Amino acid sequence: MTLEQGVKRQLEALAGSKPRLELHNVLIAVSGGADSVALLHLLRGQVDIAIAHLDHGLRESSSTDAEFVADLAYSLKLPYATERVDVQQIAFQRRWSVEDAARRVRYGFLTRSAKRLGCDAILTAHTLNDNSETVLLQLLRGTARATGITARRDRVLRPLLGVTKPELVAYLSERGLTWREDISNSDQRFTRNWLRHSVLPLLETRFPGAALALSRHAQIASTEDALLEDWASRVPDGFDWHLEGEAIQRRLIRRSLEAAGVRVDFAHLEALRAALNSTRSTRVSLSGGATGLVRAGQLKIFNPTQPAKPLEPPSELLERFPNAALRTRAAGDTIELTGGTKKLSAALIDRKVPREWRDTLRVLAVDSEILWVGLEPPMLSVRVGSPTDPEVSAMLEALQLAQSAFDAGEVPVGAVVLRGTQILSRGRNRSKASGDMTQHAELEAIRDAAAQLGTPYLTDCTLVVTLEPCLMCLGAALEARVARIVYAAPNPKNGALGGVIDATRGTWIHHLTVRRGLLEQQSSALLSRFFALLR
């Protein structure tokens, strides 16, 4: 296979990964150096090409590079886009490093140029050598994810990551093609240049093929990182993170920090991860004045510079109390709860609302009387009236069924199928009496609900059960297209929603939502009593 064929095949492989790109026209970022000029000639005649060149204005000779690329585009009769920017000035104004500013400005320019020229993808000429330098730099800086240069990021493709710079120079030289040399690339005051000219050559003398080994590491690490990221993305909302492995925990924490606009610091990340495995609520001070609160395997980030979007009261509540004001809390605020009237500050403490959130919460108030507090679920005054949660009512019914199973000497598990606010069917464990281990409460309730509806599909129903379903019962719920499962107690020996595995993370044809731990204490107490008597 020729070098041209290999690069074209790599380009097609990158474009064919999801989401697939149709490469009718591509924009090649050409600096004038050997790598980008070689990429241009390697693909010329194999795909329609446009050229883009950004003059960063960082060197006196940069205008000469721009002229070289302009002449190259003209000689090859290719569409050409160019701009000149003062990267140094932008870096100063935005308080970015020059390197960061150059990267941001360059990709912004390339994106605009690709859109204007009607190109499907942007190609850059990063090589195997660039990749090995990047991996080494990431390792030396202590980056947790030393994955090198990404071969594809959205519409930016890098088809030369498997090709060395000497191969490209040889390709150009054999054909008598010219390129420009950037003299700043030899300035070893820059860390990357120092690695390129001093460190990597020294490593090669002791470890021949060191650059290839580093690039191979990046390839393996990037695929493993993508897999772990996919696993982390499948962790459902509300799931106890301390049940996850360390690698997934780190990713979940990092995602939370990034979403809250907080700089990711390894020491802070590890402090939060350690707190996940503690039984106590833990606060961790983070960068920029932010705070992380870990409680019951969950993490909440409070960033004063990026507050969470406040919740809105329901419209019917605003209609019922037209004179009420929507505001934040004030001194003297009180709320009437079922146990009596309390100061709002005390009620928020009882609800374990982090102090960092208390002054940002929205409240609906008539003078100093609080009617509604913007929490999930909301805190409501008895004057408003607490709406009945149909899932709570259903779980109370399931607990009665579990008690019936207990009285019959069966493992105390009860289940109901809920449709809207109506209980369609009921079931309890009957495995011992029947001598049939498929006689679980969930299956009995699912069968009865299907019979009543006249269809095997319970697409608008909720399965409410006192114990986390086993794999068999979860499979039945998925086959029946149950919309939601609500369970009380976790099942650490047979649970299929996190007790042993969380089977919902698979790519099933049907997806359901889960609510965990509803009236857990009551169900756990009944189960504990049963097994204590059994022993």
* Tally of helical runs: 19
Shape: elongated
Query: How large, in whole angstroms, is the Cα Rg?
Result: 31 Å
Spans with pLDDT under 50 lasting ≥5 residues? Answer: none
N-to-C CA distance: 71 Å
* Helix and strand composition category: alpha/beta
Physical arrangement of strands within the biggest beta sheet: 3-2-1-4-6-5
Question: Helical residue percent?
Answer: 40-55%
Number of extended strands? 20
Q: Strand-residue fraction?
A: 15-25%
Largest beta-sheet characterization = 6 strands, mixed
Mean pLDDT: 90
Summarize the structure.
The chain is α/β, with parallel strands linked by helices. The protein is 43% helix and 17% strand.
Question: How would you describe this protein?
Answer:
This protein has 535 residues and is α/β, with parallel strands linked by helices. The chain is 43% helix and 17% strand. The chain contains 19 helices and 20 strands. It has helices spanning 3-16, 34-43, 62-75, 87-94, 98-116, 128-141, 165-174, 191-206, 210-233, 246-259, 266-276, 315-320, 344-350, 355-358, 390-407, 431-434, 441-453, 471-479, 520-534; strands at residues 25-29, 48-55, 80-84, 121-123, 152-153, 156-157, 282-285, 291-295, 298-302, 325-327, 334-337, 340-343, 363-366, 369-373, 379-380, 414-419, 422-428, 462-467, 484-489, 513-515. A 6-stranded mixed sheet has the order 3-2-1-4-6-5, with helices on both faces. Strands 10, 11, 12, 13, 14 and 15 form a 6-stranded mixed sheet that branches. The protein has a 5-stranded mixed sheet with strand order 17-16-18-19-20. β8 (291-295) and β9 (298-302) form a beta hairpin. α2 (34-43) packs across α7 (165-174) and α15 (390-407) packs parallel to α19. The longest helix is centred in the middle third of the chain and has 24 residues, at 210-233. It is elongated. The mean pLDDT is 90.
